[in-house]
Amino acid sequence: MNPDERRSLLRRTFDAGVAAAHPAVCLPAHLPSPPKGRVIVLAAGKGGGACAEIAEKFYRETYGLGPDRLLGLAVTRHGHARPTEWIKVVEAGHPVPDAAGLQGAADTIALAESAGPDDLVLALITGGGSANWVAPADGLDLAVKQATTKALLRSGAPIDAINTVRKHLSKIKGGRLARAAHPAKVVTLAISDVPRDDPSVIASGPTVPDPSTLADAVAALERFKVTPHPDVAKALADPANESPKPDDAAFEDAAFVVVSRPADALAAVVKTLEDAGVEVRVVGADLEGEAREVAAEHAAIVRGLTGLTKPVALVSGGELTVTIRGQNGRGGPNQEYALALVEHLRNVPDWAALAGDTDGADGGGGSPEDPAGAVVDAGTIERARAKGLDPAYFLAENDSTGFFEATGDGLHTGPTCTNVNDLRIVLVDMPG
């Protein structure tokens, strides 16, 4: 394959993975029949708007429900709204929560509390819901929650550690939304964006029992060297902020189903590559760790490939992290992975790689125009040299977005309205 063919295959493969996880594909078959009373749809996350759109269409067309029996609210990331008539859609901040998410969460809790025994509370949960639904515990304000979120994101903490803290500083996370809806029946349909598809981690588990504790939240802050604001420390010392456990009455009539998971996107990626005549080696479906370190490991595998008789692709999923060391850098784990790969493969020919977040945004400031990741190859190195750019310098500054803006290698998909974590594909077709 020539460079253009490699890049085209990579993009086609990534798009196939994203399409496999779209709510339009995975949600309808799992939507439950309506109860005697109302269907109250409460959706959140980057796919929240799409989930609300699909659910509304399903109940209108299949059961003929009108606005007297079908209502709800979806809170999604800015730029991810979808058109609906009866289910309100609100755009809010991600990854740092904002005032729109604060109001959206308050309205969500109020809708849940309005549910009666004959109603169904249908929670449609997707990645990003932790930031979109922000309801600070007593004694905390939005500014403190924002500062805590930023500090955790900069620390390199994995999503389960971040969400452990979030769940103990919230009135909606960690099972509390189910508590608000009790005694109504609660059915949660989730699109997983976390390794191992843990229900208590997806969007911080608003409708399921929480296995983590206040002590775990304190330990997470200590482990990642995040000094808590005094109000946060006080909240984490208050037993009233312990999250609901499995014996809580809130979960007596609650069901949880994962309707799509990262493995589904990975399977679509593998099939697309194999159909193109590529040998696929899955090097990790649920990878975690520092993006630059994982890139170094994958580069070592590439350099060790010899005697190839057909193209080979290293495929991986999961969610990597970035520990911020630079002062003014921009970028997320997919771009940092790609930049580190460029640095480690600067003298290797005939390769290309794509690293992207399936939601369409990798790091960034919360804008719909943020890059989803990057597509890189040997030509990236040549363009960098021509512009006098040193990948190592940009890595040190955590400025992968700046580097790829200069080389033109950013991956821009726009909002995808789903989120099943990251996909990385390293394609090698060196002659044997």
The low-pLDDT segments are none
In CATH terms, the superfamily of the largest domain is: MOFRL domain
Helix content: 25-40%
Strand order of the largest sheet: 3-2-1-4-5-6
What would you note in describing this structure?
β7 (279-287), α12 and β8 form a beta-alpha-beta unit. The protein has a 6-stranded parallel beta sheet, sandwiched between helices. It has a 6-stranded mixed beta sheet with strand order 7-8-12-9-10-11, sandwiched between helices. The mean pLDDT is 95. It is α/β, with parallel strands linked by helices. The relative contact order is 0.14. α1 packs antiparallel against α11 (262-275), α7 (159-167) crosses α9 (214-223) and α12 (291-303) runs parallel beside α13. It has 16 helices and 12 strands. The protein has helices at residues 3-20, 23-26, 48-63, 99-113, 129-132, 142-155, 159-167, 176-181, 214-223, 230-236, 262-275, 291-303, 333-344, 378-386, 391-396, 400-407, and strands at 39-44, 70-77, 87-92, 120-126, 185-191, 254-260, 279-287, 312-318, 351-357, 373-377, 410-411, 422-428. The protein has 2 domains: 3-18 and 263-428, MOFRL domain (glycerate kinase, domain 1); 23-135 and 170-209 and 244-260, Rossmann fold (3-Layer(aba) Sandwich), CATH 3.40.50.10180.
